[in-house]
Design goal:
By secondary structure, the chain is an alpha+beta fold. The protein contains seven helices and twelve strands. Strand 1 and strand 2 form a beta hairpin. Helix 4 packs across helix 6. The two termini are 28 Å apart.
Length: 271
């Protein structure tokens, strides 16, 4: 994956956006840029009531997992909660569903720290490209073929499926995870939202199933999958949808082939 070198303008534009907008939804006593904390310089430092302190780190280039964790710990040692925000334009990350994507280690550790979230705000030399959004790096499934010609589905060890979610609130929520003091926005992580949506849908399915009784080309199980795919795959992607249905015990062996074909069919229909 090719990395675009970000210039100082992009960094300054993100800080400017945060400096202007974060006080609108948070009760801030003060907000400072390029603030010295210990031996480090925080991109943004924020002081909340009850002496709660927040550091926001803006990242445009690849960062080693070890460095990300060390910087987080250093700020934690000064009693600061930390939020990492990445310029997705520097890494080829955008707010749309994608599959078979190679993921960086810093993205995986960020997702683990922030409980299913990696925060992005894309900026180019022309300015802001979008609002703050999260990406969820979900399992990606590959179809492998046995020597006898039969196929089976395998979860990729190197590739992921990406699902975006636009943040609607910039209100902070402070929390602790894996021994670190962290900050997230007041949002629901994508996987949890997908699970809730699918469970709600499945609870109502018997009623919807009656509407498909005249459809003769699909069996009852396929009809159920067809509706689920039509409703959720355009939002969460076929791979995350399959992963959750698999964990819920809804899908059967070789259902992924049917789901993938159905998703392709539906996608062509809406183009």
């Amino acid at each position: 994956m090719q990395i675009n070198e970000s210039e100082s303008f992009e960094h300054l534009r993100i800080k400017e956006f945060l400096f202007e907008n974060l006080p609108l939804e948070n009760n801030l006593i003060e907000i400072k840029q390029e603030y010295n904390i210990g031996g480090r310089k925080a991109d943004l430092f924020l002081l909340l009531p009850k002496t709660k302190k927040i550091v926001i780190e803006i990242q445009h280039s690849i960062i080693l997992q070890k460095e990300l964790l060390q910087r987080t710990q250093d700020y934690n040692n000064h009693n600061c909660y930390v939020l990492w925000l990445f310029n997705g334009n520097s890494f080829g990350r955008y707010a749309h569903i994608d599959s078979a994507v190679q993921v960086y280690n810093f993205e995986l550790i960020s997702q683990s720290l922030y409980k299913g979230r990696v925060y992005f705000l894309n900026v180019s030399k022309f300015g802001l490209m979008n609002a703050i959004y999260t990406l969820y790096f979900a399992p990606y499934y590959e179809i492998k073929q046995f020597s006898n010609g039969k196929t089976h589905l395998v979860q990729s060890k190197t590739k992921k499926s990406i699902i975006p979610y636009t943040i609607t609130s910039l209100k902070f929520k402070l929390f602790k995870n894996k021994g670190y003091k962290l900050v997230k926005f007041d949002d629901i992580d994508i996987r949890s939202r997908c699970i809730l949506d699918i469970k709600t849908f499945l609870s109502k399915y018997p009623y919807l199933e009656k509407k498909l009784n005249q459809e003769n080309e699909l069996n009852a199980h396929q009809k159920k999958l067809f509706i689920i795919i039509a409703k959720f795959a355009p939002i969460y992607g076929i791979h995350l949808t399959y992963n959750i249905l698999k964990n819920l015990g809804v899908v059967e062996r070789n259902d992924f082939n049917f789901m993938n074909l159905t998703y392709d069919y539906l996608f062509k229909k809406i183009q």
